[in-house]
Amino acid sequence: MSSKELLGIEPLELKFPFELKKQISCSLQLSNKTDEYVAFKVKTTSPKKYCVRPNSGIVLPRSTCDVIVTMQAQREAPPDMQCKDKFLLQSVIVNQGVTARDITPEMFAKESGNVVDEVKLRVVYVSPPQPPSPVPEESEEGSSPRPSLSDNRSLNAAELIAATREYADPQEKSSETMALISRLTEEKNSAIQQNSKLRQEVELLRQEVSKQLGGFSFMFVMIIALLGILLGYLVKT
């Protein structure tokens, strides 16, 4: 901050990691290294495109204030990712005890004889951070090897852990699935064996009843068989 500037501004460029259809925010820090009360106001060439909070306020002596600038979701990317939007931060010394509610546009009017400090800020679009590249598979015989993760940049510890988990999780899920299938198959086979055993017992019971009752009605025998099958179904469930 030069001797003429009332507020230090960091950074002097508003850098937005541009992504389509997504709101993006960046922050400014205003520093008052004087012993005066300083009022500020933020203006932009595209007021419908950006939201500034707070867009005006008071920075107390020897203190700082954070300003959040949010760009509304954009449907189209600008040509060559170049942005012509500009911001203007105006600041002026005010009387002690003045609050943000007391700020008026006239405070920043040079025509009224006020000493207004102005700093222009430009907007820069940057590429969003890229996710870690997947671990390349081993190249087939006769084909050129695929580029490794270390070709363009080295992985840090966090990225290595993320890549390991990305490939470890499907294996764990596969083991759990195979165990579940095996258990269900065993239960199914056990139920089939129990049902077959019950059918044999019902058949033996039917033959035994036929021997003992001789000319007993066929309907009674069918009822006994149906009861046996129903009993087998209940035991199975």
From TrEMBL:
<dbReference type="InterPro" id="IPR016763">
    <property type="entry name" value="VAP"/>
</dbReference>
<dbReference type="GO" id="GO:0061817">
    <property type="term" value="P:endoplasmic reticulum-plasma membrane tethering"/>
</dbReference>
<keyword id="KW-0472">Membrane</keyword>
<keyword id="KW-0175">Coiled coil</keyword>
<feature type="domain" description="MSP">
    <location>
        <begin position="6"/>
        <end position="126"/>
    </location>
</feature>
<protein>
    <submittedName>
        <fullName>Vesicle-associated protein 1-1-like</fullName>
    </submittedName>
</protein>
<dbReference type="GO" id="GO:0090158">
    <property type="term" value="P:endoplasmic reticulum membrane organization"/>
</dbReference>
<feature type="coiled-coil region">
    <location>
        <begin position="181"/>
        <end position="208"/>
    </location>
</feature>
<keyword id="KW-0812">Transmembrane</keyword>
<dbReference type="GO" id="GO:0005789">
    <property type="term" value="C:endoplasmic reticulum membrane"/>
</dbReference>
<feature type="transmembrane region" description="Helical">
    <location>
        <begin position="213"/>
        <end position="235"/>
    </location>
</feature>
<dbReference type="GO" id="GO:0005886">
    <property type="term" value="C:plasma membrane"/>
</dbReference>
<dbReference type="InterPro" id="IPR000535">
    <property type="entry name" value="MSP_dom"/>
</dbReference>
<comment type="similarity">
    <text>Belongs to the VAMP-associated protein (VAP) (TC 9.B.17) family.</text>
</comment>
<dbReference type="InterPro" id="IPR013783">
    <property type="entry name" value="Ig-like_fold"/>
</dbReference>
<keyword id="KW-1133">Transmembrane helix</keyword>
<dbReference type="InterPro" id="IPR008962">
    <property type="entry name" value="PapD-like_sf"/>
</dbReference>
<feature type="region of interest" description="Disordered">
    <location>
        <begin position="127"/>
        <end position="153"/>
    </location>
</feature>
<dbReference type="Pfam" id="PF00635">
    <property type="entry name" value="Motile_Sperm"/>
</dbReference>
